[in-house]
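FAQ
Q: What does a multi-component entry look like?
A: The components come first, one per line:
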Amino acid sequence: MQVNENFKPLIVAFCCNWCSYAGADLAGNNRLNYPAEVKIIRVPCSCRVNPMFILRAFQRGADGVIICGCHPGDCHYTSGNYFTRRRMSLLFSMLDYLGIERERTRVEWVSAAEGAKFAATMNDFVAQVTALGENKRLEDLRCKE
Amino acid sequence: MQRIGVFVCWCGTNIAGTVDVKKVAEALKDEPGVVFSADYQYMCSQAGQDMIKDAVKEHKLTGIVVCSCSPRMHETTFRKTAAAAGLNPYMVEIANIREQCSWVHKEMPIGTEKAIILGKAAVAKVNLNTPLIAGQSPVTKRALVIGGGIAGIQTALDIADAGFPVDIVEKLPTIGGKMAQLDKTFPTLDCAACILTPKMVDAGQNENIRIFSYSEIEEVGGFVGNFTVKIKKKARYVKEDICTGCGLCTEKCPQKKVPNEFNLGMDNRRAVYIPFAQAVPKVATIDPNYCTMLKTGKCGVCAKVCTAGAIDYTQKDEVFTEKYGAIVAATGYNPISMDKFDEFAYNQSRDVITSLEFERLTNAAGPTAGKLLRPSDGKHPHTIVFVQCVGSRCSHDAEKGKEYCSKICCMYTAKHAMLVRDKYPDTEVYVFYIDVRTPGKAFDEFYRRAVEEYGVHYVKGMVGKVTPEGDKLKVLASDLLADKQLKIDADLVVLAAAIEPDKSARPLATMLTASMDTNDFFTEAHPKLRPVESPTAGVFLSGTCQGPKDIPETVSQASAAAAKVIGLLCKDKLTGNPCVASSNELMCNGCSSCEKVCPYGAITYMDKEFRMPDRTTKLRRVAMVNEAVCQGCGCCTVACPSGAMDLKGFANEQIMAEVDAICK
Amino acid sequence: MNVSYFPGCTLKTKAKELDVYARRCAEVLGVTLEEIENWQCCGGVFSTAKDEIASKLSSVRALTEARDKNQPLVTVCSACHNVIKQTNHAMANDADFALRANTYTGEPYNGETEVLHYLELLRDVVGWDKVKAAVKNPLTGKKIGAYYGCLLLRPGKVMAMDDVENPTILEDFIRAIGAEPVVYAMRNECCGGYVTLEDKALAKKKSSAVLENAAAMGAEMVVTACPLCMYNLKKNGGCDLPVVYLTALLAEALGLTDATHGCKEENNG
Amino acid sequence: MAEHKNYKEQILRISGVNPLKCMRCGKCSGTCPSYDEMEYHPHQFVYMVETGDIEPLMESKSLYKCLTCFACVDRCPRNVEPAKLVEAVRLMVIRQQGQNHMKPDDIPAQVDEDTPQQLLMSALRKYSK
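Then the predicted structure of the entire assembly, as tokens:
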């Protein structure tokens, strides 16, 4: 496989406001590095993430999408992350069918206390997506500049 | 079209160190809708805020983007600034270029590039922001305190003193908690009971305080200002209002072999019991696991001897619902199990005890009436070994114990050692320590007194093995400073067991939707600036459920939590979160998908008349969101198949715009 | 049920009764021990060095054979068990080690085999209830101290047989054969077996500390699974407390033989 | 000398131990059954490897007194595994040419009729290459 040494993937991370966004803040407080390719979008709860957002991201040229929420049982809204888990497993299998590898999508539970886990997760995910290379599927070339 | 102002903060060098703020301000200037862009050293300062206000007026801004620290830090600040300038506070968006950019990336070009993208995403979002007006909800002027230890008692007393009614729910038959079991307290050596019991009595007699003892929380619903809590009052088989606490039943009960949990199983109580003399409420409780009458239907001695007629074998658990404006968690701690540390032979010898058991052994109301006697043979111990840090400070991969320092052990061990030497000068006392940690007022002085005045042998090192043999405990330990392995024949070994949050805290946190750390301590809203609040609005933290603490710290936190509760209960109305779901009636097809996923029951359906284009009317079933109940998770928006449901402040369009801006 | 069986060098020579009784008792309890073909000595000690590969290959081969037969691998000797279980753990969890070992053997193996000590076989496969039911000659009234030593339990995370500091498996065994277990703290301390050649004085000190503690707590005999412990406790224990193999006790309880007479016979044969 | 500096690195690599995890509680030495026979004790092995002070350890008889009983490994609250360091240092010595601590010729004098085979086997494995 051809690997482009300079390839920097574009990663969209949806983080729930109560756990994972705070976990990302904690990673910052503790100065735990992770690649700048990760861009975080704040949502109130991981269950706010509409599959449309993910499709849109891939359409617009994202190489990977990760959704982070509270650990099961710890959702600020009691049960939102359970919905996320079910919705995303369906969506990811559909994306897989469409040719977007499973490794490009991920759901991860990161609590507000897990800054280190946040950074480690992002490092791992970026490495994983980088290894896959650029995502061509679903991409709408009209959206590229 | 919006008129957006962009304000890029340097945060001193926190942001400016890795992000070229001038370049960011410059790059965002040409984004759609942006009419003003500037940078400043500290946007959150008064001068910075004034700069925003001036720009709003001067450039007739309709929206604001602040590129600064996390919105969790200063979103409220900048919303207030906007409001002061006459803007709707929800026309502000924050681009987090500190925690999620400058602090995690090291190189200036990379940090700058990312900051620009985050800024663009925020601009894209603000372009679609609409003014939001928060609803208001009334406040139930009653507080709930969960846990009746010193933390819960202090919180309840302070709230009650301010004139608000407060309920304490305690799972045991009496309030008092761990402090009631302690003998003396460091560093002043005043007796725990002497300072605690007056507070227990105050709580019991205060007209603003109701104590639900022997009770547990079953269910929590609602939100800040309007919690609905189901409380289960367990059957104690004694009518609380009639029992006089005379204790006659507890003397006559024929079932004498029940391990006494108040003395940590070191002696026995009866099946009907009052935990200790100063219990509040001073009411007997029948233990259904041991009561012969409840188990076999034959006995009834307590009912016969009770002159008040308070015994009621038919009593059932009772569940009732109360409404509260605020909830305080004060669930406390327990020493960890010593099962994983049996190299210290805790399970093999009765003369290896934990420090809490030691408290009971030296307490005048304890199993030995305050005489320090060995549990195995009742003899006076002549050599006592204290082992510190048992189960504290363990690494994660050791797969036993806790990673944190339990904080109180150094001081109580110094206290125990000192008291033993004071009362029994013929006793040799060894304390094995890794570090002696005594940060606190008069703490180190106290520890030094134990060494210098009382002659306690402090040994830097750790006990590796305790071998019971004959009536001795052979203690093998290292003395690191002398570079020796010590072999001590001890009579009593006391383990300073790590402390952990009470097991009831985890299910409670789930009910409260309050977050916990990996050790099951409640997480505070901010580790420094909001240490007594949970991130869940209306839930406050008191005492060791938030982290290891000694008594003075617990009491300070308890009072601080009370102050926060009082501040909340003083308000007549609370301004809610306007970022709630709303349904577009014209698109709603009445399918009920949203209703099924809503955890709050905030969505109801109604039949509504709609005018059709042909001027007829049609009755359609449509979703309605109760804005006071909706918490804004957005789950329904994804469930909605017709795209009718959306979330204010985090609308589909807004998030899509952010995605587009990032992926451009 | 058939299981793979790794006897080990000592069970074929100095500790024959450990081997013979293990097989006979297992048969009575419905388990056949199938000896691994062409097994090689485990090496007697597990090297913790990550770059020691060759010394662990005999274990890998035995494990691979058991895997191919789809059987758990059972050992009686504590040392063999320790070496094989630790090797298996490394094959499953240390990818670098597994890669290098597999390069030697040429047959990919990644720790699939379940390694059981004879005691685990009794507890988890046979079950104490079945052992109890098979006892014909309960050792009622005998006070027996269980001697775990170091090899049977440690390192705890790898051996994962029982609680390292508060084990019960041997005590449960003693109860199952009708005797009374005596708990003493030195039961999971080392007898010093490995240094017997190097430093006899140290071995004596360690063994006698074990037996003294067992005797002080009222044990009338001590049971072990390890030939090395057996040798060392007997030779260097400095105490006339009898030390017996667990399989000998089991055989006695199952009515297969009288423990003391049986050993001699088997050793001579 | 350059080669010597390499010792620490090699020891850390073959043992897989991170001595920085040690909080210096001394429990390993408090529980070591061979403590009295050792010149350098388990906690000192950890500390001295960390500081790179390895030659004294390599010259010490302590290397051959460790019983490999793993008490220090299982009881360490920080999961440092001192026994693995002792073994690694020992290997650094006996892997050098002519440095076998026990030679086959030394053995017959120590053996009696009951000596189990595994003892001979493990002694050779532990003390020679």
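Q: Is there any commentary attached?
A: Sometimes. For this entry: Chain C has a mean pLDDT of 92.
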